[in-house]
Amino acid sequence: MIGKIGSGGFSEVFKGIDENNRVVALKFPKIKSSETISENVFKRFLDEAKVWSKLKHSNIVEVYSYGVKPVPWIAMEFMDGGSLDDKLKNGPLNLKDALNIAIKISDAIYFAHHHGVIHQDIKPKNILFDRQGNPKITDWGLSKVLLEESSITEFFEGTILCAAPEQLDPEHFGGVDWRCDIYGFGVTLFWMVTGRPPFYSDSIYTYLKKVMTEEPQFPCEINKYIPPELNDILRKLLAKNKENRYEDMALAKNDLQSLLKKI
User: Which residue stretches of the chain are H helix?
Assistant: First the structure.
């Protein structure tokens, strides 16, 4: 390992060189010792790594290898272009840039769904860029594995801002399926074009109430130069009732491509 390059609520990432002399990102769960992770989490981490390693797509971070000894680890493609979250700290993106990123990410989500994989945590922090500026989705399933040992307060840090209503209240909004990714993608697109998420509050309970009962202020109300067609797309992505969202990401991608051609 060369050195630590990042740390989140649930994992740490190090830069390293693998046996093929490739620069890689090495991800480990954030633990004090191997005894602090249950056998079940070891198994689930390995299961998720197996699934992720089979997702070969130009807009999905590639997994090279993985294992569980002495602790769970994944060696993956090293992304040195920063994250979408980093870019959004400077404000909203140019509309064409946002649409180009969204089209590529929507294709990756569609690909994963048609291979039976649901991400469940689509958000700006989980979209990384390579040196050429190509966006790729990372952390396929790892947040789900690690969240079982965290509190809702920890979950609120970033992740919950892109969570679908059914992820927050399945009793009222129904069980979680692939459409939670469609919602998370909608939040991410909204964030790209406005510089902020659809809902926010310093209080987790106020935030939850907003997500479940209020409609967001749509982009053309925030910026008059945003075309109304984008509002229509976002309404279908961010519908509280998952039955009212796009049926799949291919339909969303088609609408985004049509909009891009007009501007």
Answer: 39-53, 84-88, 95-113, 142-147, 152-156, 165-168, 170-173, 179-194, 204-213, 219-222, 228-237, 249-262
Q: CA 111 to CA 115: how far, in whole Å?
A: 6
Looking at residue 147, its pLDDT comes to: 46
State which amino acid sits at residue 115: H
Rg (alpha carbons) of the chain, rounded to whole number:
18
By DSSP bridging, strand 135-137 and strand 73-77 are unpaired
> In this predicted model, what pLDDT tens digit does every residue of 120-166 receive, in sequence order?
999 999 999 999 999 999 988 654 544 444 444 444 444 788 999 99
Distance of CA 78 to the CA centre of its chain: 17
Q: Which residue has the tokens 């088609």?
A: 254
Side chain identity, residue 52: W
Go through the domains of the chain in sequence order and give each one's CATH number: 3-77 (3.30.200.20), 84-262 (1.10.510.10)
| pTM check: above 0.85 | yes
SS3 17: strand
